Amino acid sequence: PWLKAEYGTSVAFGIPGILMFIATIWFWMGRKTFVHIQPRPGGKTGLYDALSGSLLFMGFIGLPMFFTSILSPAAFWATMAGCIIAGLAIFNQRQKIEADDGFLAITFHAIAATLRGDNKDNTSRDTSRESLESHWLFGATAKKFSAETTEGPIAVVRIISVFFLVSVFWALFDQHSSSWIRQAKQMDLHLDIMGGIDMLPSQIGALNPLMVMALIPFNNWLLYPAINKTGFILTPLRKMTIGMLMAAAGFAIVALIQEAIEAVPDGGEKISVAWQILPYFVMTQAEVMVSITGLEFAYTQAPARMKSTIMGFWLLCVAFGSKLVAIMSGVEGMSLSQFFWFFAGLMVVAAIGFGVRASFYRYRDYSQ
Questions:
Q1: How far apart are the first and last CA of the chain?
Q2: What is the DSSP string of 225-243?
Q3: What angle is formed at CA 326 by the lines to CA 68 and CA 16, rounded to 5 degrees?
């Protein structure tokens, strides 16, 4: 932000670009020390996997999320149908080369087998490996691909059912680089430290990475062990539930600050931007408990072949959160304080729903 204010946009973008180039060289220098895992499958089959997966994603998720306001209705439905048909055609061609047993293949086979009636005599709802062959949806698939292989997509669906409500957290978290800056612009940006500093609204966000690096060791070495000693064991999903409630508290604080700003009469003394330090601290603690824990949870709960699939769905939850903010930002007549209160309330509802779902989750350990 300081570079942009002093030297313009070109320098502000140019210097991070140079630093990224240096980082890329640094990364490349370590190429001989990394563990190299060859793509599976590679070559033409791998290319078909990438193409079919990308086209199906665009048809079912990408286009509805991001292109409804860009394309005309006729163009949207035609493009959507084209992506789905092309994706299925390429996937079918890929299966002819070599039968796949990945997420899409098992999911498609399970749906097709159920529609054909291959699972009509199966009634089991138990998705444990021992009972999969009698499962109402995956029974025929487990018999064809093996129970161990079929368990992978089931684990993905199980984790997605937990992750879905985390999208609301990301809707809140990413606002420290948007609506929180809008709030900072309405505040007194002068800080009486180091002889007096005049901050830029977008500089306050630098608190987040600084606090992250301080809170990670504090939580791991002091806070979490102290809480566990009380008998309340902080499982990953409990950490995430608490973190989501803290995110709601952070937005409640921001909403109260905004109400105080809106109550200041014209020409009155502005609220100091130092008040934003408190919600930044609360929100960063929430980030550490939700984001880092969520990634760890996803990695340990997904079989080896499903880890990249789970990472894709995790990032999709982040995208859903951003989409939610974009939708709410288009609502007219909503003040900034009302905007903050809406998300605080939505986060409470999502946290409660997440906690209820988490209480029924059965942990599986697939860590490598």
A1: 42
A2: HHHHHTT----HHHHHHHH
A3: 105
Write the Ramachandran bin of 235: left for phi over 0, alpha for psi from -120 to 50, otherwise beta: beta
* Nearest-angstrom CA–CA distance, 284 and 172: 11
DSSP string, 61-119: IIHHHHSTTTS-HHHHHHHHHHHHHHHHHHHHHHHHHS---SHHHHHHHHHHHHHHTTT
* Whole-angstrom distance, CA of residue 160 vs CA of residue 310: 8
The amino acid present at 94, given as its one-letter code, is R
DSSP state letters, 273-301: GGGGHHHHHHHHHHHIIIIIHHHHHHHHH
Asked whether 197 and 188 are in contact (CB, 8 A), the reply is no
The CA distance from 93 to 89, in Å, is 6
User: In the block, which residue shows the tokens 């304080």?
Assistant: 337
Please give the DSSP secondary-structure letter assigned to residue 197.
Answer: E
Residue pLDDT tens, the chain, 368 long:
999 999 999 999 999 999 999 999 999 999 999 888 777 788 899 999 999 999 999 999 999 988 888 889 999 999 999 999 999 999 999 999 988 888 888 998 999 999 999 998 888 888 877 788 888 999 999 998 888 888 888 888 888 888 888 999 999 998 988 999 999 999 999 998 878 899 999 999 999 999 999 999 999 999 999 999 999 999 999 999 999 999 999 999 999 999 999 999 988 899 999 999 999 999 999 999 999 999 888 888 888 888 888 888 999 999 999 999 988 888 888 899 999 999 999 999 999 999 999 888 888 877 65
Structure tokens at 299: 């990695």
pTM, to two decimals: 0.86
Q: Please list, in sequence order, all residues whose beta carbon lies within 8 angstroms of the beta carbon of residue 46, skipping any fewer than 6 positions away.
A: 39, 40
Asked, as a colleague might, if the bond just before 16 is cis with ω within 30 of 0, I would say: no
What lies within 8 Å, CB to CB, of 100 at 6+ separation is 49, 94
The pair of three-digit structure tokens given for residue 251, joined into one six-digit string: 């937005």
